[in-house]
Amino acid sequence: MCVSKSWHALISDPDYLDSMFTWPSLFFLRRHDGIGFVTSEGDGGLPLVDSALSFLPAASTITLLDSCNGLLLLRCSPAVATRRPAAFYVVCNPSTQEWAALPQPSVEPGFDNNDIKACTAALGFDPSISCSRFHVFQIEEEERMYNYFVRAVEIYSSETGTWARKETRWPYYWVYMTGHKTYFNGFLHLTVWELGVIAMVDTKGQAWRTIAVPSNGFRGSVSHSQGHLVYVDVRAKQIDALAIYVLEDHSRDRWTLKHKVKSAVLFQLGKLPSLVDHNPVIAFHPTCDVFFLYDEKGRRLVSYDMREKRAHVVRSLEDVALVDVEEVYPFFFYVPFYSVTIDGQMFTLDVYQN
């Protein structure tokens, strides 16, 4: 069992579940000076969340890569010279202050020599399956015709403590990622350019699938909410609008249009961005009909309630580390998880030392 009987009774209580809707929404984000943390009620952390990650040993650089059900995936470089390669992965739980440094994959994390790169990684953790096991997916890309296509995925299992590199087996040879990804139902889901599909791979690298997306999927993004896969289409027939689709029938890969909204409603008094140039959606609330977006021109975090059809400016955000070549804004929705989670060997300070 992952949790005690008393805790299970608490989280099964309807009144407790209703109270979840009053909790502030939490985001980690990349800032120019490091990692930031904001809530829908202001800066700073919660009493039981170490949002500064102060429990981690000193490192010269820490880059936040992903967040999944209470765990964070980081790419770190040691603060001192070491025999260890320059960069490595750390998985941590800010709520319990646990952390583990992972062994090296076959390609160094963050490696980029213009021909091959391993700059993208994703975290897979599902506490409904196991409260201690997690997976890390490192995406290995190869340059062809000035673009990078996915040639392999290397997968780390905390259960075995090892990496397994798998050549891609999707029905398309050229799979170019847009950067949007989500872990759901045991699969990593990736949005890709031009093919009009979501590419999927399981935690063992054995099942490789694709799901056709609605419309042309030019700048769409994938997420999940309320137990369903969600797809955001920014190239709807009405250009400056978002269309939200839900995959309600997984057996037939059938999408249902859930909502459509114009950018004028989303951004209200601010300067209207071109949705064709960038997908502004950064996250969906896991339990209700709310999604979040970043207004780059107005430097604002905005929420939108699909039931009430109303946008709300959550807060201003001036210091967000944006990279021009990135398709995805550097926000990571965070749900605290207070159970013991980190599986595998626990590393100590000697990870960072000779």
Automatic annotation (TrEMBL):
Protein name from the UniProt record: F-box protein At3g26010-like beta-propeller domain-containing protein
Residue span, F-box protein At3g26010-like beta-propeller domain: 59-315
InterPro entries noted in UniProt: At3g26010-like (IPR055290), Beta-prop_At3g26010-like (IPR056592), Kelch-typ_b-propeller (IPR015915)
SUPFAM superfamilies for this protein: Kelch motif (SSF117281)
